[in-house]
Amino acid sequence: MAKKNRNDAVFVKPISSKLDLTKKKSKKSDNIKLENYKSFYKIFAVSVFVIFSFYLIPITSGYFYENINSKKVTENQSKKKFELTLSNKILETDTEKDEGEINLESVFKDIDVFGSDEENSNTSRLSAATIQQLFEDTNYNLKKVKQTKLVNIGNSLDHLPEEMKMIENTSKRKDLFIQIVLPLIIEENTKIRLDRKKLFVILNKNNNTKEDQDWLKSKFKQYGVNSNDLSTLKIRMDEVPVSMALAQAAKETGWGTSRFAQQGNALFGQWTWTGEGIKPAAAQNDTTHKVAKFKVLKASVKAYLRNLNTHSSYKNFRRERAIQRDNQEKLNSLELVKFLDKYAETGIEYTVILKKIIEQNSLTDFDDVKILPTTQKLKNLI
């Protein structure tokens, strides 16, 4: 039997310790790898959760918006503020700015709600038969208007005929309504167009005369713009597409058959709290608002155009209109109606209906119609 010496004993022990150390290192390495894997899976799981959340949030928001918010009624603040501006009252909380500082106190001063600015007009109400005969005698029909792109504003009337409801033929009733309202819209748009041309002439001048300065001052007040804010004035002083105005008048009056249109010449359903007006039949007992009355139809059209061109509820409409002007000059009513969701309590649904009215009745055919000039000077201006 071999005898062990010290060296053997000493030699054996170090080998055992090294093996143990190697095992410990191996075990420690395995633990680190396991921890790394666990961290990786945690990070992976969190990443998947975050990505999925970002994907799910828009869908969930859209669902709640469509199923909850869509059931809410949109309060038409524009109608309320329209009345306040007519009464020279401004809401203390109304600090919203639109393309610049606004001053609405003078916006409607040249438009009396009840038509005193039109007091010299012929305010007699003609029957439907008389109006139709008058249009035939003057060769005024919509087919000709679409062909010539001209309308005689001499055909303008102050009131709708009482027999609108009695015209059973829907097509004839719609045509008569358009024949009556079309010249009024064209005339007011023409006035705005001439003002807009004059504005650009003044802007291109190196020096403005006293007359130019006075004119600008009056227009700043008319459009609720602070003095010298020419960029805002340029945005607000513009036309409203004829097709859009016709569609709104048709919707608000039931193609001229509503009580508000018949009794108050109200083509666009503007409200009043203090002035003379007509209370809606379906209004609750505690409701104090009425639909504003106008002495003649023309005053209603003028107030409607001024409202769209000044009120903060329609700033997006005006901005889109300005973009269209810059890009293609011609206004696209089918796009612009999308920005009238604040005009009625039904919101977006209201804009969808307007678009259908425009398309179903081919109202865009009237967008490029101009007034028939009675003089060469007027022809050159237009």
Level-1 CATH class name of the largest domain: Mainly Alpha
Main sheet record = 3 strands, antiparallel
Structural class: mainly alpha
Residue fraction in strands: under 5%
Per DSSP E runs of 2 or more residues, the count of β-strands stands at: 5
Query: Runs with pLDDT <50, length 5+?
Result: 1-19, 21-25, 57-78, 84-98, 115-122
For this structure, the quaternary state is: single chain
Distance between the termini: 131 Å
The succession of helices and strands, N to C, reads HHHHEHHHHHEEEHHHHEH
Strand order of the largest sheet: 2-4-3
Rg, Å, rounded: 35 Å
CATH architectural label of the largest domain: Orthogonal Bundle
Number of helices: 14
CATH topology grouping of the largest domain: Lysozyme
The helix content, as a percent range, equals 55-70%
So what's the overall shape?
Answer: globular
Number of discrete domains: 2
List keywords for this structure.
single chain, 382 residues, mainly alpha, Lysozyme, 2 domains, three-stranded antiparallel sheet, two-stranded parallel ribbon, 55% helix
Tell me what you see in this structure.
This protein is an all-alpha fold and 382 residues long. It has 2 domains: 66 residues; 305 residues, Lysozyme, CATH 1.10.530.10. Helix content is 55%, strand content 3%. The protein contains 14 helices and 5 strands. Strands 2-4-3 form a 3-stranded antiparallel beta sheet. A two-stranded parallel ribbon has the order 1-5. α5 crosses α8. The protein starts with 5 loop residues before the first helix and ends with a helix.
Question: Care to give the gist of this entry?
Answer:
By secondary structure, the protein is mainly alpha-helical.
